[in-house]
Amino acid sequence: MIEISNIVKKYGNLYAVNNISFKVNEGEIVGFLGPNGAGKSTTMNILTGYLSATSGSAKIGGVDILSNPIEAKRMIGFLPEQPPLYLDMTVKEYLNFVYDLKHCTLNRKKHLAEICEVVKIGDVYNRIIGHLSKGYRQRVGIAQALVGNPKVLIFDEPTVGLDPKQIIEIRNLIRSLGEKHTVILSTHILPEVQAVCDRIVVINKGQLVADAPTSDIGRAVKGTHKYTAKICGDTKTVLKVLNGVDGILRAEPVTEREEGSYEYAIESDASIEVRKPLFYALCDARLPLIGLESAQANLEDVFISIIDDNKKEEN
Ligand code: ADP
Question: Which ligand 1 atom is nearest residue 39's CA?
């Protein structure tokens, strides 16, 4: 549904976006993630036709945004970080205005009523937007993106500035919109991505550094597995054995669980199966292994490690 191929955007000598390619399939909710200055907004702006790329192409539903912008834009509903609201209009006036702007041909009354029901703004339909709470304003922002029933929805930081209850409501809303639309969610809030997205694309310094299903991101990014092991015995001896196992990259004691046994965080090379050799090595050393679990790296760790790896490569 969305195909970004080899996009480059240069500002003078600076590569704001440097050869990024990724696809979003129909019905997917993809999180677009990266630290400040990574190139997220530049990519979103190219994708939505607000900026032209120095080179490369962006296609929506097979239509190139540069060579056929009107047709491509018809397929996109965009909620920018600052929703484009007219505060002195009522919700009704505003949505009718957007309907006209987009030259929408769907049945006006029915279509707007459906949108109001989906985003739950029916009770404020005749109120002035400037008098609404931030949560409601954000819903109105989402409503304008839905006018014309576009296949693709692009949300830029949709929950910034909302209170915790509003945040959960907006995330639930985005998830439910994902059932009928293809969604790109640009955000820097990691739990949001985990709560909402099927896949994650991470960029840093204009380059794509990860692209994987949300559940796989820990593995996909670092090529390592993490385990938590409970082992009886003195930590120094245990660490010596652990560090001698081929494929174990890092091991450290985390907490003392029961008298004489500790929990260890172990990181191993994903291409090497370490569990069996780990078991035998501990047996040989007469150090009982009383628990071994796979521990998924959390997104926060992963994100920091990606950024760190990028820094190391630069030095
Ligand atoms: P993000 O949205 O991830 O924070 P941006 O896409 O806004 O990142 O910016 C990527 C890089 O491009 C940054 O280094 C930023 O300073 C630079 N940049 C963005 N817009 C311009 C511009 N109009 N002129 C010059 N540099 C820009």
Answer: 6
